[in-house]
Amino acid sequence: MNLCFAWMPAALLWASTSLAMAAYPEKPVTLVVPFTAGGPTDRVARDLAEALRQPLGASIIIENVSGAGGTLGATKVAKAPPDGHTLLLHHIGMATAPALYRQLAFKPLEDFEYLGLINEVPMTLIGRASLPARNYGELTQWLNANKGRANLANAGLGSASHLCGLLLRQHLRVDLMTVAYKGTAPAMTDLLGGQVDIMCDQTTNTTGQIEAGKVRAFAVTSAKRVSTPQLASLPTLAESGLKGFNVSIWHGLYAPKGTPQPVLDKINSALQIALKDRAFLQRESNLGAMVVNDARVQGAEHKKFVTAEIAKWGPVIRAAGQYAD
Prior knowledge:
Layout: H1 2-23, E1 29-33, H2 40-56, E2 60-64, H3 71-78, E3 86-90, H4 93-100, E4 112-128, H5 136-145, E5 151-154, H6 160-172, E6 177-180, H7 184-192, E7 198-202, H8 203-211, E8 215-220, H9 237-240, E9 248-256, H10 261-274, H11 278-286, E10 290-291, H12 299-320
């Protein structure tokens, strides 16, 4: 009898995980985006949700939980029930938050289950349409002639545009005023209106504005040129003189720590199908984003990648001396 009872916990565990796999998803899945609606990360999330619905077999609700550089939304998911019905889509901020915030309510490498990397997005250096500079060389001349007056917009501490701006200022060695906004949308609105001078932002957010001629485009931040027709003529910043400059913003998918492995496996399987969806691939390509198709679409490799990114960005942020309490 004792031997029989000894097997019962294992049998019950097997049965419960099997039931979790079979029953999941039992209701709509909430995909938390830790930034405002209308921004580049929100766009990626909505495109992915469309491609993910059928293979996952669930409706997907986008919930924008913005604030504190993406940490509010990430914290919400870290504390959510670990049943696979609340997921997080986050960008490079998952790796930079430990250096940016002295008091962080979550631990990126401990409080989440890693589901896979989604894409990598180059950024573009753009300016208001009324800027007299027509190319990168002319832009640097204009910035040097307007030291202390020229300004650089970003979407707030920890945003992609903020991180790109940190590196840009270090490389340019020009005295630029920084104008921080509460999200990408208001920053872009003021750039379009001519209230700010330049901004560094993801191609997912700038390609349409560049194509429409509403902003001046000077360069892309990736190591190689972007192949999309709208951006193919733009040089890289490295080509333009900023040797070694290479910034791409990536996005990944996460679940709360403790989510059952069968549920994680089901989500990851659905994610891999979604990343091969033709409509999703085309939408991402049109925006200059590169969908990941290597080992990083698996949770373990995704986590290794983020670990390396934490080590990469920590010294850059600490050197800039920019922290949030």
